[in-house]
């Protein structure tokens, strides 16, 4: 009996655009880079959860938008974060999201997602260097505050 299975093909690719990547040396570097990824007028409008991907030398490989939410929250899927990290051959990540209210204090959900991603990444030997909460004028760094 000859069985013909029809399944979808999975193709994975990552194409870096730049040879001389920017390096992240502190939370301010991460904040400035992530702030530049927001279109004018959007950072105070609704929440966006993004991830910055880094190589062994802490050079930026790229970033991606994980989720786009409402005024007070967005839902980040740990599996999508890890998928992108593996696809880019990242050894370190910086999580980032904005608070449209301008209140930079981490919520319980912010702390929970940080722990979930950290635990998943640790299994893959990927470091979570920071989780930045940003507004258009300032930021909060989990790493600087000893929350990682």
Automatic annotation (TrEMBL):
Protein name, UniProt field: DNA repair protein
Entries under Gene3D superfamilies matching the protein: Cytidine Deaminase, domain 2 (3.40.140.10)
Organism in which the protein naturally occurs: Phocaeicola plebeius
Domain MPN: 24-148
Gene Ontology BP term (one): proteolysis
Source lineage: Bacteria, Pseudomonadati, Bacteroidota, Bacteroidia, Bacteroidales
Transmembrane segments: none
Alphabetized GO MF terms: metal ion binding; metallopeptidase activity
CDD domains referenced in this protein's UniProt entry, alphabetically: MPN_DUF2466
Keywords per UniProt: Hydrolase, Metal-binding, Metalloprotease, Protease, Zinc
């Amino acid at each position: 009996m000859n069985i013909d299975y029809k399944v979808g093909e999975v193709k994975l690719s990552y194409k870096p655009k730049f040879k001389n990547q920017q390096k992240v040396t502190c939370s301010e570097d991460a904040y400035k880079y992530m702030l530049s990824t927001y279109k004018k007028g959007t950072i105070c409008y609704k929440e966006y959860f993004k991830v910055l991907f880094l190589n062994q030398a802490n050079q930026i490989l790229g970033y991606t938008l994980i989720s786009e939410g409402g005024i007070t929250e967005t839902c980040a899927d740990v599996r999508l974060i890890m998928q992108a990290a593996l696809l880019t051959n990242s050894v370190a990540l910086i999580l980032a999201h904005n608070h449209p209210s301008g209140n930079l204090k981490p919520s319980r959900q912010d702390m929970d997602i940080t722990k979930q991603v950290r635990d998943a990444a640790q299994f893959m030997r990927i470091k979570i260097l920071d989780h930045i909460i940003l507004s258009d004028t300032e930021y909060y760094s989990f790493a600087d505050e000893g929350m990682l």
